[in-house]
Specification:
MerR-type_HTH_dom, 2 strands, DNA-bd_dom_put_sf, mainly alpha, DNA-binding, single chain, Multidrug-efflux Transporter Regulator, Chain: A, Domain 2, 129 residues, 5 helices, MerR_fam, two-stranded antiparallel ribbon
Length: 129
């Protein structure tokens, strides 16, 4: 028998808020969520796995639009593996460029910290003279 999970259980399993889970459903990042006779959502193991995957994208800083592109490629009939890999490669390039920019920023910050340390030493010498 297939086990179903409540919104609260999925939220706890994925770390996503129920509000975020509903938002992802509303914007098409996840679909096919079953409902019980009272209209409550019933999630599967597969749904939990997909939410975890979306959470991973979110943690990487992937914009919602990119996540939607990736989600739109989920097609059980037609293989979209190449397109999904290419999307991930494109996103990897963006992340790599962001990392390079952050490294340049860190170097600038370190230089500024060094400059302030020198100024502090000069100030100390002038204070004690």
């Amino acid at each position: 028998m297939k086990e179903n999970y409540s919104s609260k259980q999925v939220s706890q399993a994925t770390g996503l808020s129920i509000h975020t889970m509903r938002y992802y459903e509303r914007i098409g990042l996840i679909d096919g969520i079953e409902r019980d006779k009272n209209g409550y959502r019933l999630f599967s193991e597969s749904d939990i796995g997909w939410y975890k995957f979306l959470n991973y994208f979110r943690a990487m800083g992937m914009p919602i639009q990119e996540m939607q592109k990736f989600a739109a490629m989920r097609n059980p009939v037609v293989s979209t593996l190449t397109a999904r890999r290419e999307l991930m490669e494109t996103y990897r390039k963006k992340v790599y460029e962001q990392m390079k920019e952050l490294e340049r920023t860190l170097v600038n910050i370190d230089h500024k910290i060094g400059y302030f340390k020198i100024l502090e030493e000069v100030e100390k010498r002038n204070t004690y003279e």
